[in-house]
Amino acid sequence: MRAEDAAGASAPRTPAPLTSAPPAPALPRSTDAVLAAGTALGFLADLLLADPRRGHPVAAFGRAATAAERLLWRDHRGAGALYTALCAGGTVAAAAGLSHAVRRSPAASGALTAAVTWAVLGGTSLGREARAVGAALEAGDLAGARERLPGLCGRDPQSLDAQQIARAVVESVAENTSDAVVGALVWGAAAGVPGLAGFRAVNTLDAMAGHKSPRLRRFGWAPARLDDVAGFPGSRLTAALAVLAGPDPRGALRVLRSDARRHPSPNAGPVEAAFAGALGVRLGGTLAYGGRVEHRPVLGPGNRPVEPRDIERAVRLSRRVGALALVVCAGGRLAYGALRGGTTAVSRPPAGPRTARPASGRRRAAGEGRG
């Protein structure tokens, strides 16, 4: 070994100082951005196109669920639980499989999210049906209003007068703002396409089998209870947004606090109470479902009775609530993605000029390698 090589090998090398760059601003993960964009596109599609008149996926699910009910029905809660698990669980599994299949393509994933969002939302069709009943009432066509009412709710229309029909429409708009719009958006933000499809499946099963009729009292227990759980977050968000977006926030908050718990439904109660207070009308009271008469507590007892003109006001409030829910849910998902990315990001040192090893060191290593 030459002297200069030995001197170079023995001389200590000072490592280059390492400096850490400030972490880059956290950006939402691509999946969160794709989900938010797809949800917004699906919301816009429902706003512009409403529900398809033929080949609606929810209608196809309803036919499949009807066939499953005929096959599995027993006068027992266990049979209803099996029916619910197969129908709702199968829907979630199918949606999860589709999401997994397109996960590597942002375009395909966004298109799937938009399509499913459009399929499960029903805000525009809800408003159209409500306005059609309201127009019939405004024109004095009570028979026409009675004919169209079953498209909104399951009440017996033949015994209802104009004021009672108007009240039924406003109550249906309030409840379905949660069930057909906000609840789906909440579950979509939380669980993506499986959340969207699963929520709609559970809500549809409750509408089909979650009744207290003698035949479904036990069999329909499982879908009704599952719908109560699934609808809880959406109903609370709907009530809160109705307070904020309504023409009388103080009145809405007052009725929500005083009367929501009196309603027999844990989810319809807050929503209908908030709408009653926001619109300054009185909801609840006696109603008839499938031959059964129910006497429900009055929501907003100090307010005036519902009038046909209040239907339009309820639809407009529903539209505002739906738009705000989209902002909250899509924005919340983006914010969650940004926070999650910020907490898991690893700071790397900036790329800079590398410190070259001494030439003597390189020659020494080469010489040692040759032996």
From TrEMBL:
Keyword ATP-binding: no
Membrane topology classification: Multi-pass membrane protein
Feature: compositional bias, Low complexity: 9-19
Residues covered by region (Disordered): 1-25, 342-371
Subcellular location: Cell membrane
InterPro entries: Cobalamin_biosynth_CobD/CbiB
Domain of life: Bacteria
Gene Ontology terms for molecular function: ABC-type vitamin B12 transporter activity; threonine-phosphate decarboxylase activity
Keyword Cell membrane: yes
GO cellular component, one term: plasma membrane
Name listed for the protein in its UniProt record: Cobalamin biosynthesis protein CobD
Taxonomic source organism: Streptomyces xinghaiensis
